[in-house]
Design a protein that fits this description.
Number of strands: 16
CATH topology of the largest domain: TIM Barrel
Helix content: 40-55%
Radius of gyration: 25 Å
Largest sheet: 8 strands, parallel, barrel
Strand content: 15-25%
CATH class of the largest domain: Alpha Beta
Number of domains: 3
Number of helices: 18
CATH superfamily of the largest domain: Aldolase class I
Strand order of the largest sheet: 2-3-4-5-6-7-8-9
Length: 512
């Protein structure tokens, strides 16, 4: 009979810490809801003490999610644990996740504590967390560079103090599959009370072995795996959730283990995260890359047409992709449009469907064929909605290689009633001119950190997808815009980031 592996998702905590992957309050809620649809077992919602914004997002997720355990990370300190519980106390299934470093290098240089002092802190802080919450996870940071005998003592003490899960993090991605297998097996054999807690693992990808190490640990008896959508996370990232889950499913005869994840939601989850963060998945990425189920070579095409299993070890449908070859264009009807969306894993209410169909018709007038990638982009705009302080009314750009680029931009400001404002600016290029015109209108000081443009699909009529990142103080805001006109997509992305900044600053002001 197959055993069970619990999926602990840290996209919103470790994943969100990675450069370029920060999310605002509304985006975190939307990702949490999608993780609930994905049916992960645990959502690590954040690090509650890190900032007021992190606290509010952990609290909101804890109060929103009903079908998953919600965890908050805490250092092994009373104030951290107090803050985590304050955020988690209304959760249907709360978990306090506390940690301290246990390797010699971390204890000596970071903590400046002796091994015995660390051991005593583990006992006190796990017990302290236990008074709030029956479900307590303890992590020994940098476990794979910790002396094994000391690690056994640490875990034994944590379990005796009330830990229900003990986590073995490969914090710097240092171990190898064979080494990690032996470590997990030795923990099972040398920690006397290990039967009273689940063994968890958290692997980083610095040497490209995060998924392999995770699966080796599972073979050795780990019952929980900590991972993130698209493998995002500190430095080179975490073990990718979709790769771990599909390995367990596709090679079930090898692992003989099940997990509760609804794999048909994998593709949608990956796309949502990419849309929010602006971090695209490389085409050859396992499971969710654009080429993962694509066949171009003639011999491959012939084989797949004769029998899919010749070159496909998983079905596209199993992760929520559609094989439907129906072409969508301006003559397509509402039923065909709705059917395609359902086959892609989307369920929209009538109002959302009406809005999406109207946008689809406008796009279909500009493009001969609307592909699935176009629909993904079209629908990504409904995922996270924030009040729009500024909307684009019109713009005109004059540019060329013999003149200075000039942009005239007119915006409507919605503050009780709409007020239309227009400014003209010049720049070294058309987008700089447009951005400067917008800055003159809004009168807010901020810095443009990045601007990227990519083609959503192939062909001269492809949609252009623009991303910008703007900084105001210590906070960075990501904006996105999509249009068949690349200048318009750039202006829209700039406004999107600006509106996020204004809305979040208002929200944080209200929280003070």
């Amino acid at each position: 009979m197959a055993g069970r592996v619990y999926i602990f998702d840290t996209t919103l905590r470790d994943g969100e810490q990675s450069p370029g992957c920060s999310m605002n309050f509304q985006e975190k809620i939307e990702v949490a809801k999608q993780l609930e649809r994905l049916k992960v077992d645990v959502i690590e919602a954040g690090f509650a003490i890190a900032s007021p914004g992190d606290f509010q997002s952990v609290k909101a997720i804890a109060e929103t999610v009903q079908d998953c355990t919600v965890a908050s990370l805490s250092r092994a300190l009373p104030q951290d644990i107090d803050r985590s519980w304050e955020a988690l106390k209304n959760a249907a299934s709360p978990r306090i996740h506390t940690f301290i470093a246990t390797s010699d290098i971390h204890m000596r240089h970071k903590l400046k504590m002796s091994p015995e002092e660390v051991l005593e802190q583990v006992k006190k802080m796990v017990a302290y967390a236990k008074k709030y919450c029956s479900d307590v996870e303890f992590s020994a940071e940098d476990a794979t560079r910790t002396g094994p005998e000391f690690l056994y003592r640490i875990f034994e003490a944590a379990i005796s103090a009330g830990a229900t899960v003990v986590n073995v993090p490969d914090t710097v991605g240092y171990t190898t599959p064979d080494e990690f297998y032996e470590l997990i097996r030795n923990i099972r054999n040398n920690v006397s009370n290990i039967d009273k807690a689940l063994i968890s693992v958290h692997c980083h990808n610095d040497l490209g072995m995060a998924v392999a190490n995770t699966l080796a640990a599972v073979k050795a008896g780990a019952a929980q795996v900590e991972c993130a959508l698209n493998g995002i996370g500190e430095r080179a990232g975490n073990a990718a959730l979709e790769e771990v889950v599909m390995a367990l499913k596709t090679r079930h005869s090898v692992f003989d283990l099940d997990c509760g994840v609804d794999t048909t939601q994998i593709n949608r989850s990956s796309k949502l995260l990419s849309s929010i963060t602006g971090i695209s998945v490389q085409p050859n990425k396992a499971i969710v890359g654009a080429n993962a189920f694509a066949h171009e070579a003639g011999i491959h095409q012939h084989g797949v047409m004769a029998e899919k299993s010749t070159y496909e070890i998983m079905t596209p449908e199993s992760i929520g992709l559609s094989q439907n070859a129906m072409v969508l264009g301006k003559h397509s009807g509402r039923h065909a449009f709705e059917d395609r969306l359902k086959s892609m894993g989307y369920t929209l209410n009538k109002e959302e469907l009406d809005e999406a169909f109207e946008k689809f018709k406008i796009l279909a007038d500009k493009k001969k064929v609307v592909q699935d990638a176009d629909l993904e982009v079209l629908l990504s705009h409904k995922a996270v909605k924030i009040p729009e302080t500024y909307t684009l009314d019109r713009f005109v750009i004059n540019t060329g290689n013999t003149i200075t680029a000039t942009a005239s931009v007119r915006l409507a400001k919605h503050n009780g009633e709409a007020v239309v404002m227009e400014e003209v600016a010049t720049g070294d290029g058309p987008m700089e001119a447009a951005f400067r015109a917008i800055e003159k209108i809004v009168g807010i000081s901020f810095t443009l950190e990045d601007y990227k443009l990519r083609s959503v699909t192939e062909g001269q009529d492809a949609q252009g997808e623009s991303y910008v990142k703007i900084r105001r103080g210590a906070r960075v805001y990501t904006g996105k815009g999509v249009s068949t006109d690349i200048f318009e997509s750039g202006v829209m992305s700039y406004l999107n980031a600006l509106n996020k900044m204004i809305y979040e600053e208002k929200l944080l002001e209200q929280l003070k």
